[in-house]
Each structure stands twice: as structure tokens, then as C-alpha cells.
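Support reply, case 0932

Customer input (verbatim):
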Amino acid sequence: MEYPSCRICHCALNFDVVSVGSKGRKSLIAASIRRGDEKFVSSEENVQVHTKCRAIYINERCIQSAEKKKPSRQNSIQNVLFDYQKQCLLCEGDASENFIRKQTRKRQGERTLVCTVTKQKTAETIIRTCLDGITDEHKEKVKQRVFNKDLVTLNARYHKPCYSKLLSHKNATHGKRGRPVLEDIQDQMERVYEYIDSNMDDAQFTIEELRKVVNVDLPGNRTIKRKLMEHYGENVSVVESKGNQLVFCIMSNAKLTLEEKWYNNKQKDDQMERMRIVCTAANIVLEDIRSPIYETSYYPPPSSFLQKVDDPVPQTLKNFVEIIVTKYKNNPEKSENSVVALCHSMMQAARPRSFKSPLLLGISSIIHHKYASRTLIDLLSSLGFCASYYEVTKFENSVIFHPQTEEEPAFKQFVFDNADCNMQTIDGNHTFHSMGGIQCNTPKDFSKDVPILKLDKIPKAAVIGKYGNVSLQHYLNRGLPGLKKVTLKDYTNEPPILPTKGDALWIFGKSGSFMQDEIPGWNSFMGDFTKVDKEYAVSGIQPLPFINHQPSDLDTVYTALREAQQRSNGLCIVSFDQPLYQKAQKIVKANPEMDNVILRLGDFIC
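Our regenerated output:
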């Protein structure tokens, strides 16, 4: 059904319509004369306009503003020269194809998106916003470009940030305190619907995302949830994700059901019928891909990052790809990984924003770790075979800033040694000398395996460099004689150490000529002799941050001991090689607060 258009905003009269009486028509004619727009020149009967448009049109302040800013001849000439397909409709900036290609080469967070007016609702929103209390020159220029123009036919372009700024101008200048009235809530939700409809390529949205992008004071979460369910009906599903965030998924408005009508539309041409079946199957698979709600605020836990990667894949998509890949193969089990990888690539292409494949992200992480090539990652990402370079760097930074919490007490040992990187420089200078260390944990999995919080943006290099840096602590007790406190015990008068039962048994076996060849060496024999079937825990090694200072300096050794004390649970066992062990003993014996530190002499190549 076609509706008549409003004489003021030129939009369809499909809501909020008022019929103006004789007295009201006189007010409109008087306002039209003062404005000079000739929209109401005679006392016509049956004049219908929008209620809000009429209130703004006859408002005294709006009329005075329009009188001061009547379009001049110069503005009319500029309007004629305006290119709707190469310039931004709102800021007159560049929006050509060359500009769009330049933006695709930038990082995702630095791009300026260019949109095209493809829906009449978008054009009506721009026109209504320009009419809503025009008080600046910017809206006046936009008004001259959009009035009496079919923006959809012209394929008018605009920058997405300019559109958000235009919508938020009224809220920033004329906002009122307190709970918004029903008309304001409806106007705000219309902007939300506009954003959702223009981004229907991805079905999943969050309330926080809408608040940031729409850039207006939206009502509470309960009101937004109720309005979305009223507007989209059964096509929206709302759930609460981690962090108490409301996430909602907009499904396709035209649900595909195999009804009798679909069977009756069978094509006579076999090729056309095959295409009809394939298109219907593709739409069914696409709807199953867009329907679920996926977690986008957290990465999977490290231990289960690539486990159950086929769980998020819809069964329809999996069956479709399995038939294509494995139907005529003798061993279809060998192609299971290929099937899952293809499914993840298709899902990421269909939902690039709301579905982040852990499989593709893992592939990018391995490539980045193995080859450190951004070009290779960008090439494979453009083909859909792995995640983008921006995503893998964000993931690695999220892992760096992910806190590690202990689930159960663990036995910890620490080993430190000098870490040297003798670069082959021309003059032999600028080599790298520091203290490196490891932490040995028993059992290996002592920390909680929790999801990794995804960072909103990649931190700067200066922030990343400071994280995990061990600050150098100065050793102030250099004059204290620590080694003089070391006591040596006299073992000369101690009774001799007698062999154990195992030793005696091994000596007896090796001394007899009849069993000498069958008895293994002492190490192997004692290993078999003392072997018991008991449960044991596997230890894990965790690298520690470098201490960027000369390893032989007392400050560096003191800092390493302090770092081990902070990370230990009670008893602190630290191993050094002989040169560092001597200095560590001097520090420990001179400081009573290090009574819980036990030093061991050992080798560690760093």
C-alpha cells in the first residue's frame, strides 16, 4: 500500500498523522511565507502532515532560524555540483571508490566505512533529523542536499561516523535530564532498528555495542529487550552471556519451511529445478549458521582451545560439506579435519563479527609464531583460511594480560642463570646480558583453567613492554659478612656409611661369576629395585620474566631471590650455578627475612 507524503518532510504518512483544520492551515501558510519555501501557498482542504513535523514547522525559534539561513544562490550552485556517488552526503568529504579501496588497506579499527542509502527508512531518518530543531549550519547544508531528492535512486553515499554524529547531535545539544518520555524512547529505538537493519550481514549484537555505535542515551536493558521483542517478534532471541551482558540474535525474517507451496513451484526445466533446490538448501544452511549465539567476549581456556571445535558447526552445514568432500572417498575418516576446517571458514565468512573461529585463530597463531610473517597471514586471511593479523595479535595480547590463579597448592622450584645474547655486531657492542629463570611446578596443571578475557583493543607497545617486567631491587647490605655465618660440620669422626640392602645385593650379584653378565649396572639395577607402582605428578616448566641487568651483580641476584619468594608458597627452593650460588649464599645469610630460602647448586643453561 502506497501512502501519501508529508508536505513538510516529504516522507510517507504511515504513522503519527494529523489532519489540519482551517485555523491550523492559516498557521502553516504564515510559517511558509516567513520561511520562503512555498510549501503552503493557499488554504487547501484536507491537509495531512506528521504531528511532529507540524510542531517543528510552526515553532517560532525554528522559523527565526530558517529566516536567517535561507538558501542563497551560491548554495544552490553548490547543490547542483554535489556528486552523491563520490561525496559524503553529510560532510561533503570523499566517498569515491578510490577512497573505499584506500580504507580497506588500513587496520580494521582505523577504517572509515562508507555506506549507501539503499532503504527509504534511512533517507527518512536523515530528513527528520535535519528538521528536528535546526540550530547549526551543518544541518542546514545537509537539509539543502536531501530535500526533494530521491536518495535511494541517486545511490547517495555517506560516512558511517558522520551518520552517527548527525543522529547524536540532538541528544548532545537538547538532552533533558530524567527518564525519557515515550516519544524519545521510540525515536531512540528507531535509530537502533536502523543500525540493526543496516548490519544484517551479521546477526548477533550486544546492548553495549548498540550504546557505543548509536551514540544516544538509550533506555534501560529491560526496555530495550522488550522493544526488540515487540519489533522483531519471533525472529529475535535474547540471552545473558558472561559478564551479565545481554546478547541478542536477529534471525532471518523469512524462515524457510518446506511447505506445500514450495513443492508446487517445481520448475519444468531440470537445470532450473536443480538451481532452485541448491538455493533453498543454501538458505536453510545460512539460517542455521545465523541462529545460534556465540561467545565473543572470551577466548576458550588454553587446555581446551582446540577441543570440540566441531560443536559450534550446525549439523546441516556439516552434512552438506561431508557429502561434497567425503562421498566418493575410501577412507572418509581421514577427511574429518578438512570438513571441520571448511565449515569454520564458511561460518566465519557468514558471520565475520559475531563468530570467531578458534580453529582459524589457532592456525594464525602457529603461522605467526613459526614464520612471523604478517604478509602470509593477511594472504591466507583474505582467502578465508585463517584469522586476520589484527585478530591474532589481539589474541596474543589477551593471553599476555590474562591473570593466572592457582586452583590448588603446588610444589615450586626456581632456577636462575645468566642469559646472554651475543649479537654478531660489527663493533661487538650492544650485546644482551640479563638474568633468566624458570619455575618448576608440581603438579603441572595447578592453575585454574578459565576462559581468556578478550581485550577491546590492542595495547600500545610501551604498555606491553611494561607488563611482566621485573623491577630491579637494590641490595643494601653489601657490607655485611654473609659467608662468615656459614657453618661447616666436621664429619671425620662420624661412623662410616654402610651399604644399603640394595647395594649389598648388587655387589653380591656382580661378584658371582655365574650371574655377573645378567646383572645390569648400578643405576639400572637400583632403578628396577626401587620401582613401585605409585601415583606421581608430572611437573611443568613456566618461563619467568627476564631481569634486565648484569647477572653477576648483587642487585640482580637479590632481585631474583625476591621474585622467587613472592611466587613461592612458604618454602622457597632456588638453584644457581657455582658463581651465582656463592653470591646468593652471601645474600641469604646476611638477610634474616630470607630464612625460608633454600639454595641448591645446579646447572641451568639459559
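We compared this against your earlier run and they match. Two observations from our side: The chain has 24 helices and 14 strands. The chain has four domains: 1-70, 71-173+180-250, 292-400, 411-488+537-601. Please reopen the case if you see a mismatch on your end.
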